Structure formats: structure tokens, C-alpha cells
Amino acid sequence: MPESPPRTSCERDSKMIHAAGPSPSVGIAMAAYQAADTIGDSLRSILDQSRPPARTVVAIDGPDPETEAVVHAFGPEVECLVLPRNTGGPGAPRNAAVTHLRSSGDVDAYCFLDADDVAYPRFLEVATDLLMRHPESPIAYAGFDFWHPPEDPPSPEDPTGHGHSWTLEEYLERSGDKLLSFSVVRSGACTAVREGGLPFDPELRRNQDYDLTVRLLAEGPGVATEWRGAAYRIASTSHSASGVDAWSSRLLANESLGRHFRRSGRPELASLMDRYAGSALRRAARHLWIRADTGDRPAASRLLLDDFTKRRDPRSMAVLLMLGLGLDRKAAGMSAGDHRQIDPDVPG
Fold first, then answer.
1. Are residues 301 and 246 in the same domain?
2. Within a domain: residue 342?
């Protein structure tokens, strides 16, 4: 039975659309759910941009009266959609926001700012200037500050320096250095990465950003600046705080990307993703081992043994032996708590 489409709960007055001059027009496509406590700050940061977006669309992932009320309070400057049911991840609501933008004129580029983060006032100005100076790049990134509420977000610095290339290989080695949330992506590039023309795989509940970024950078390098243009909210309860959850999700995303590149006739990229899938598996196993809840260490052992059996990768067996002997140096440097600032991405 087909689902009913998202309902439009507020419409934008066409006179509110901001002229962006020669710079690319940007549409904010924000996913939200149970975000009433945070989305207000995020939307205010967008509306306070030195170069405002052409449009801002919030797609709420299922009925959520409290979040809807916060979004409605912004009036016609923010368009609001509510999906008929919760899908369990940001991919489907972001796709709904993109579809809504396309159905009524579209924009030159999208920004997928999360509903709990804050963009500094010159973020869109700097990002769109990068796209203008690098017309071959599908995506422009800014850096970001870590933000630990209840403290106030860090104070932004003035933009300095120029953009530099950001390749797929660099991203895979340091995926935590540049985040899709703090980027601007050309709309045409989003159309080309997937059959059906939408940017995100709704079947992926986690690592949707990683999946899209790998697909984009597989077609050509992006451009990035080290200037920190946003504040990334650190919440100890988030999915990404858990090394077990984060790397298990990354394993699934890498396996999916490997299948995609294999079907696309790009065996070198498929092999690369298989390599990173093995790395993610070993990281998940290490985090299971150091967390050491009931059943964690047997689960880690099974992961590593299965990987050795299927991939014939001796590194998985070596990690298992070193963990058992207490000699694995990478595990010794990991935290059983929030791994995000200490866990590099280099395969191992």
C-alpha cells in the first residue's frame, strides 16, 4: 500500500527568497526528529547568515508536535514537511526536503546541516565562494569546532586562507576531519550519484553522510577550507559516541559501497571499500573488547574469526591473538566511552 506524501505544514512567501547575486543559490535540507530542544538554535544560525540561503526546508521524520511547533514559530522563512511515519534515520527526510526543493524550482546547491548543530554567520558565504572558485568540485567543506553544551558555542574566527583539494583517499583516511553537515553540495552532483536521482539511501539508518560523500568524491575531488565555520554539538548519548555502534555501522556502509562499485564496473574502488570494511570490522571488534559488557568479548572474537574465514585477511586473526594476549596497542589507546576525538580512521 503506497504511503501518503509528506504534508506541507507551512509555505514560504515567495517574496522572502533572498537574492544571492552571482553566488550559487543554496537550499537548506534539514532532517529533524525529537529536536525541539536544539533545532531553534540551528535555524537561527541559518537565518543569520551573511549570505542567506535561498530557501530553508525542514523535513520532520514522522509526527512530532513539539518539534513542529518550534519550526512553525519561524513563520514563512522556514518551509516545513512532516513525513507520515518515522523512518529511523535522516536519509528519508533529507530526500523529502530535496524533492520538495526540486518540485518548486530547486537551487544550485544543498546544505544538510543537522538539527542540533550551529553554522557560524559566514559559513554559507565562505562555502559558496569556494564553489565559485572551484567549479569542478562537487562539494565544498568548512572545518568545525567541537561544542560541549551547556557551554555556549565557540566564537567564530574571521575566515582565512584558501581552499585546498579534498580527495576520496584523504576522506577515507580522515573522515572525521570534514563532515557533510558542514558542507555545500552541488545539486547536480547529488542527482548523479544514485539511481533515482536522490542523494541518500533510505535503507541506511546510519552512515548516510559517509555513503553520499564517498560516492561524490569517487567522481572527483571536493574543495575544503581549514577555517572552522560551524559548531558540532557533542552529546554523550549520540550514536556516534559509541565506538561499537559507529564502527559496526561503518562496516555495513563500506560493504554496501563495495557492492555498488562492483556493480558499476569499478573493481579498484570495490577493493578499496572492502579494505575499509575490514578495517571497520576490526575497530568494532576492538571497541567490543574494551567495553567488555556481558557477551562483548565472545562477539568480538566471532567477528574477527568470521572475517578471517570470509576475507582471508590475516590481520583479523592477528588482532584476535593480540587482544587475547593484552598486547593490542590500538585497543589500549581507545576509550570505552566517547571515541570521536581519539579514534583515527586509518585502516588497521
1. yes
2. no
Q: How confident is the model at residue 12 (pLDDT cuts 50, 70, 90)?
A: very low
pTM for the structure as a whole: 0.83
Say if strands 139-147 and 222-233 run parallel, antiparallel, or are unpaired: parallel
Please report the sign of the dihedral spanned by the C-alpha atoms of residue 61, residue 63, residue 67, residue 71.
positive
Listed residue (166, 180, 172, 205) closest to 277, CA to CA? 172
User: C-alpha cell of 9?
Assistant: 505544514
Percent of the chain with pLDDT strictly greater than 70 = 87
**pLDDT class for 239, splitting at 50, 70, 90?**
very low
Residue 20 belongs to domain spanning: 7-235
Secondary structure (3-state) at 303? helix
The reply to whether 183 and 291 lie within a common domain is no
Residue 164 burial (CB < 10 Å; 0-12/13-18/19+)?
middle
Same-domain pairing of 83 and 208: yes
Q: DSSP state, 242?
A: B
Residue whose C-alpha cell reads 582471508 in the numeric block: 312
Give the 3-state secondary structure of 12-58.
CCHHHCCCCCCCCCEEEEEEECCCCCCHHHHHHHHHCCCCCCCEEEE
Percent of the chain whose predicted confidence (pLDDT) is above 90: 66
